[in-house]
Design brief:
Elements lengths: L4 H15 L11 E2 L14 H5 L12 H12 L19 H6 L15 E3 H15 L14 H11 L7 E3 L1 E5 L3 E4 L19 E5 L4 E7 L5 E5 L4 E5 L3 E4 L1 H8 L4 E4 L3 E5 L7 E6 L3 E7 L4 E8 L5 E8 L5 E3 L6 H9 L17 H10 L9 H5 L5 E3 L6 H9 L6 E4 L4 E7 L5 E7 L2 E3 L5 E3 L2 E6 L12 E4 L3
Parallel strand pairs: 1-23
Antiparallel strand pairs: 2-3, 4-7, 4-10, 5-6, 7-8, 8-9, 11-14, 11-17, 12-13, 14-15, 15-16, 18-25, 19-20, 19-25, 20-21, 21-24, 22-23
């Protein structure tokens, strides 16, 4: 078959356009960001750089007793939002929404809860979550929208009608880092196909944390619990059930070891050959002894019948751990967050990773603080806040922030939280944060960050115009 001249000409043009694309016409190529983001000098990636700028780096800011009183006050704190500079309080964003999925602004003490709870209260919570399940599209791990059949399978597993009128609480302990879920399933419910934001994920929870168990799924593979910072579903394999006092004995043991590294391995033998599990930064475990050849700890586990058992665990002598909580100093706060430098982003602590507030929480928890795990919950924890007028110029905002105390100050909004590092030797202001996004460079390429990184407040990735409030963690 012969082609007409016009068709031949058209084919030639198509081939020419394919082979000879104009400069800049090629699709943007995503690339990983460099270790030092634009405006960040390599030495700034060392915590000692920032510690050296603090004259009071080693001063104890709050004693353990003062931190205990702070926690008690926060458990009963009433939050009142006010207009700021003629606009709604920047920390009101997401506040009610995150409470509605089970996160706590005011942390609780599960072991101090009453023996019983009203069933209608739990039914109301579960029904509200079910309404949310049908309120929008969720995507599974195949990037397909959840069907009504898939939703109904989750609803059936919850079994709202099975909730008794009077619930008898059982008590348990987390034996291995676990996820608190909005529904009794490990399957993700992504918000969209572009980002791995699992909206079924509420938070991560750590070894030795206590829980009160209210209910269980139809097949018993998930428990609905109240933990110190959230309520929700946890896979039952991560919880050992015991008498309240037995749990308390482990949870409140004053002689404990804390993970000061990002994650610390625990072994089943003193020769450190039989790996058992990790415990993660700020998690604690009861300490039996330290003989110079390593640490021996009490390792809780779940027996076949679901009850609590304990055995000995072993941790290397050079492990990044500390006996008890760290002294609350600027040196320690800066050092702790830099131990997570470069760690990848994980929404609501999914996949054993952390998001912005998950990162901040474990730093704060290293000193014994117990706060909520959402940006505005953290930023509202202390009474020492500085709000930034959005009408100020960039230079004026820089001047206000430059007066805030670095190293122990967190900033952000109701959707993101950062640590304020302060003014560097070059006179510019810097933050360190866990962020799940990137930026476009001068070539139009998308630069993926999605990790803990240091950045200049002049860089568009997260500049001085983004944080609207700062909280300094002082008494």
């Amino acid at each position: 078959m012969q082609l007409s001249c016009s068709r031949v000409l058209a084919l030639i043009i198509i081939v020419a356009l394919t082979l000879f694309k104009p400069v800049g016409a090629e699709d943007s190529k995503p690339r990983h960001a460099p270790d030092a983001l634009p405006g960040v000098e390599p030495e700034m990636l060392n915590p000692e750089y920032w510690i050296a700028l603090q004259d009071d780096a080693n001063d104890v800011i709050m004693t353990p007793a003062e931190i205990g009183r702070f926690n008690e006050k926060l458990r009963n704190k009433k939050v009142v939002f006010k207009d700021r500079f003629g606009k709604p309080d920047p920390l009101i964003s997401n506040y009610a929404k995150k409470l509605s999925i089970g996160l706590f602004m005011n942390p609780i003490q599960p072991l101090d809860l009453p023996d019983t709870a009203p069933g209608d209260s739990l039914r109301s919570w579960l029904e509200s979550n079910i309404d949310y399940l049908y309120s929008r599209d969720f995507y599974d791990n195949r990037n397909a929208i959840y069907s009504d059949k898939m939703r109904q399978k989750i609803v059936d597993k919850i079994n709202v009608d099975g909730v008794p009128d009077i619930i008898t609480r059982r008590f348990g302990i987390i034996v291995k880092r676990a996820d608190v879920r909005l529904y009794p399933t490990a399957a993700p419910g992504f918000s969209e196909t572009k980002w791995e934001m699992d909206m079924f994920q509420t938070t991560g929870i750590y070894t030795i944390d206590p829980v009160a168990v209210l209910y269980e799924s139809v097949d018993g593979d998930f428990y609905y619990v109240e933990s110190p910072i959230a309520r929700g579903w946890i896979a039952s394999e991560y919880i050992a059930i015991a008498d309240r006092n037995e749990v308390r004995k482990l949870v409140e043991d004053k002689n404990f070891l804390m993970a000061t590294g990002n994650k610390v391995p625990i072994y089943g033998d003193s020769g450190f050959r039989n790996y058992v599990r990790y415990f993660y930064l700020s998690a604690t475990i009861p300490l039996i002894s330290n003989n110079g050849r390593g640490y021996t700890v009490t390792l809780p586990y779940r027996k076949m019948d679901g009850s609590l058992g304990t055995t000995k665990g072993y941790i290397r002598p050079d492990a990044d751990v500390h006996k008890g909580y760290l002294p609350y100093t600027k040196r320690n706060a800066i050092t702790q967050i830099f131990k997570m430098l470069g760690e990848p982003y994980g929404w609501a602590d999914q996949q054993n990773k952390r998001d912005c507030s998950g990162t901040e929480v474990v730093v704060i928890r290293s000193f014994g603080f117990v706060t909520g795990r959402w940006p505005n919950f953290i930023l509202l924890a202390s009474d020492h806040q500085t709000y930034i007028d959005p009408a100020l110029s960039t230079e004026e905002k820089m001047a206000v922030v430059a007066k805030i105390e670095p190293g122990i100050t967190w900033g952000g909004t109701g959707g993101h939280a950062i640590m304020y590092l302060g003014k560097a030797r070059n006179g510019k202001i810097y933050f360190i944060q866990m962020a799940g996004w990137g930026y476009d460079d001068e070539n139009g390429d998308h630069i993926i960050v999605n990790r803990v990184a240091v950045n200049s407040a002049e860089h568009k990735w997260y500049d001085i115009n983004s944080p609207r409030a700062f909280m300094t963690l002082r008494p």
